Amino acid sequence: MDKPFAITLDVGSSKANKTGAWRTERPVYADRMPPCNQACPAGENIQRWLYLAEDGSYESAWRELMADNPFPAIMGRVCYHPCQTACNRARLDESVGINSVERFLGDEAIRQGWTVPVTAEPTGKRIMVVGAGPAGLSAAYHLTLMGHAVTVMDSGAYAGGMMRFGIPRYRLPRDILSAEIQRILDMGVTLELGHTVTNLPAALRHFDAAFLAVGAHIGRRAYIPAGDAARILDAVSMLRGMEGGVPCLGRRVVVYGGGNTAMDAARTARRLGATDTVVVYRRTRDRMPAHDFEVEEAIEEGVTMKWLSTITHADGERVTVEKMRLDETGFPQPTGEFEELAADTVVLALGQQADLTLLQGLPGVDFEDGVVKVGDNLMTGYPGVFAGGDMVPAERTVTVAVGHGKKAARHIDAWLRGTTYRPAPRPAPAAFDILNPWYYSDAPATVRSTLELARRTSTFDEVQSGLDESSALFEARRCLSCGNCFECDNCFGVCPDNAVIKLGAGERYAIDLDYCKGCGLCAAECPCGAITMQAEQT
Amino acid sequence: MTVPAQQIKFYQTGSFAVGNRLLDLEDRSVQADTDRANALTSGHRACQGCGEALGARYALDAAMRATQGQMVAVNATGCLEVFSTPYPQTSWQIPWIHSLFGNAPAVATGVAAALKAKGRTDVRVIGQGGDGGTVDIGFACLSGMFERNDDVLFICYDNEAYMNTGVQRSGATPPAARTMTTQAVGPEPGNAFGQGKNVPLIALAHEIPYVATATVAELHDLEYKVRRAMEFRGARYIHVMVPCPLGWGSAACDTIRVARLAKESGLFPVFEAEDGEVTGVVKIRRQVPVEEYLRLQGRYAHLFGDPPRTDVIARIQAMADRNIRRFGLVE
Ligand SMILES: Cc1cc2nc3c(=O)[nH]c(=O)nc-3n(C[C@H](O)[C@H](O)[C@H](O)COP(=O)(O)OP(=O)(O)OC[C@H]3O[C@@H](n4cnc5c(N)ncnc54)[C@H](O)[C@@H]3O)c2cc1C
Ligand SMILES: Cc1ncc(C[n+]2csc(CCOP(=O)(O)OP(=O)(O)O)c2C)c(N)n1
Ligand code: SF4
Ligand code: SF4
Ligand code: SF4
Ligand SMILES: [Mg+2]
């Protein structure tokens, strides 16, 4: 064709001009690690299940959650939610109420009777789990999903471990606990209650591998000079007693210790009719290991706190308390000033120790500070015997125990196959500074309502209620989806070169490298930081 | 009845993001739609991160939806014209004609008159140009178009200088900004204070049916205003702030951020007016000192030397404060 001077192209669309050649950097979609997921001891993909819950797909959300944690309804009540402490939204207004959405999903599953099918082919391997607490049950759940045959043995009359014999009912109603445990048993897990394992080498003969999760149940004692009439209990025994009947505590109860267990013991004493419940703790409030909300709820319920005090003597009617002061290192030192408190009972809540006698006679197993040493794969020094939960060195929470159960299951499975389980490398963190928070609407958190005070001191009814559906949905939608595309169309909209291709619902986007000039606007305006700019190879 | 963009209430994104899978289709922006007109398509030669290319597509795609594709655009000379139509190529996927640098409003008037003569008043006319073409050389034609109340929507893409010819000062260049013709030298470096013109307010004074300002940082608001403008007959004017990475010395990836800060600092008031009366302002959502806006731009670098020109920055802040008072930009 005859073209005018200096013209080489036919008249037509500028699409013939591939401006992508200008580019020195290209946008790349990446899923980064949201801080909530990073912080969850059970390794939940929180961002993902919140994303599913956001459009009302509660069952899908629940199934996503169940991939990591078989106890959403329990978690939603007792987990100390480190995810929320880490949540990026806290920098905008308040963290997302992850835990309350989790509870909503867990309760919804119980209401709807959702179950988890076991689809794996049976492997023919038999695995023994000792202890039906959260660690043992979580391992049993995951191992069953992998096709192994699991038998759980527990000395107790009911399954649940400290979730049943420690955590009081007003925080974890037993029908909820039982429902989530039953769902695991219904998957084909064998449970042998009243079965205390004493001779591990003998028991192991019938199994291909074992997971030990016996917890830490022995209440630590402190030497307190005491008269004959003094009634001194330890908190774990007292709380355990609650599951059989009603322990007799008297009207004036002194609880010694500053942890969560002390709060539970004191609040339980109030509910049992104690008129005076005093917590005696040797340091100051800010140093109490108990979580703030538990101290606050205890005080609301009429528990009084005596900080900077130690018990020096007890008899049937009173205890003697010595005032302490903190030295420069923050350590409490005696002052020589004494005070007397009327008390019928002293409850010691000074921590728990693990009873590890069942490991006697097992060669190669090492101990450290009263717990069992395990490798990164949670295996003890005895091949094929793994351990987790409170009996190994770790933070002692239900969620950590659940995480150990999952992790152990993966390593046991690999060990049985003669391989090594290698977790996928974690993506780069989605820190707050990669977000473009302009795009998020203001939305302060919803608050869970609590039971009226009168019923909190006279009954064991659950103190905190759950969210209704609309509040749970609202809360899920507060999630910023840190580091993970949530299909807001910003990149598709803001590209001055129409170089972002929208692939359709659920399919996300692609970059048209023929025209992308690499300006970086899509990356800068992505609210959740899901796009990174990477240098072109030249 | 059209609903202002700010009324969409949604608790994740939605009021501000381009789209959102959870919003009803009609509450998402035109830009979220894979069937958008893409009035200005790929392959154009605008710089990386060009605010004008983005603003033009935003506005014209919204106009295409509002008119069901029955529209024609008349374009003044300037970057938008030059980068989109180097013969033999065009990026325009709409009926589009190029006028001259100074007569786009008059040509648009003529197109509207011709369509009326042919009984095709269903086809709507848009005139558009840069700030130079609008505020300076095309101004007499624009004022005449307003005064006669011709049935044209004129859109000014304001990048605050004559960019296409190499960043010369225009009547829309802000005080203290460095351009090729207002160098950062002497005791009052950059463009002078107390000069230039505010064409949105001049348009308002013509008491035409609709006047609005917008930025490329608030898409829902911009689209709403184009849609709203199309509900009127007669002369209408929309003035869109479109940062220019090249002329402003800002990073290509910061184009939208810079526009956002112009509005959030109060330097660029975003409002709309009907028949000469202001009917709505977009409030500042996260107020920032002007310094945050200025710092991102090389054209103000001379204010942040050693020692910094805090006196000049304070004068610019005073301009923002005056806008905030005048338009009630803060709740
Ligand atoms: C009062 C109290 C309140 C708590 N509140 C919370 C809370 O709100 N949130 C939280 O995250 N954590 C809480 N914790 C901590 C949490 O309960 C524990 O960290 C968690 O239960 C540990 O789980 P586990 O599976 O390791 O052991 P456990 O739950 O202790 O379970 C161990 C099980 O092993 C069984 N067992 C022991 N020895 C043998 C044996 N030889 N043979 C067979 N069975 C055996 C026991 O009967 C028991 O059922 C609380 C603890 C206490 C004491
Ligand atoms: C009558 C006339 N004078 C000068 C020019 C040269 N010229 C072309 S574009 C331009 C500047 C355009 O500035 P503006 O309208 O602000 O648009 P921008 O390029 O900044 O988008 C000039 C001076 C011309 N084309 N016609
Ligand atoms: S288990 Fe705990 S840490 Fe994990 S998501 Fe739930 S509340 Fe958060
Ligand atoms: S905003 Fe959402 S994704 Fe981000 S940390 Fe919080 S819960 Fe996780
Ligand atoms: S906005 Fe468009 S041109 Fe710029 S980097 Fe992203 S895809 Fe490329
Ligand atoms: Mg210009």
What would you note in describing this structure?
The complex is a heterodimer of chains A (538) and B (331). With 538 residues, chain A is of the alpha/beta class. Chain A folds into 4 domains: 13-31 and 485-535, Alpha-Beta Plaits; 35-114 and 435-477, Fumarate Reductase Iron-sulfur Protein, Chain B, domain 2, CATH 1.10.1060.10; 126-217 and 354-416, FAD/NAD(P)-binding domain (3-Layer(bba) Sandwich), CATH 3.50.50.60; 220-350, 3-Layer(bba) Sandwich (FAD/NAD(P)-binding domain), CATH 3.50.50.60. Chain A is built from 18 helices and 22 strands. Chain A has helices at 35-39, 46-54, 58-66, 72-78, 82-86, 98-112, 134-145, 162-165, 174-185, 200-204, 235-241, 260-271, 292-300, 398-416, 453-458, 469-477, 490-494, 521-525; strands spanning 12-13, 25-29, 126-130, 149-154, 190-193, 209-212, 218-219, 232-234, 252-256, 276-280, 304-306, 309-314, 318-326, 332-342, 345-348, 352-353, 367-368, 371-372, 385-387, 500-502, 509-511, 531-535. Chain A has a 5-stranded parallel beta sheet with strand order 5-4-3-6-19, covered by helices on one side. In chain A, a hairpin with a 3-residue loop joins strand 12 and strand 13 (318-326). The longest helix of chain A has 19 residues, at 398-416. By secondary structure, chain B is α/β, with parallel strands linked by helices. Chain B has a single domain, classed as Thiamin diphosphate (ThDP)-binding fold, Pyr/PP domains (Rossmann fold), CATH 3.40.50.970. In chain B, a hairpin with a 2-residue loop joins strand 8 (271-274) and strand 9. In chain B, helix 1 packs across helix 7. The model of chain B is unreliable at 1-10 (pLDDT under 50). At the A-B interface, strand 1, helix 17 and helix 18 of A face helix 1, strand 2 and helix 9 of B. Bound molecules: flavin-adenine dinucleotide (FAD), thiamine diphosphate (TPP), iron/sulfur cluster (SF4) (3 copies) and magnesium ion. The site of magnesium ion has 7 residues of chain B, from helix 4.
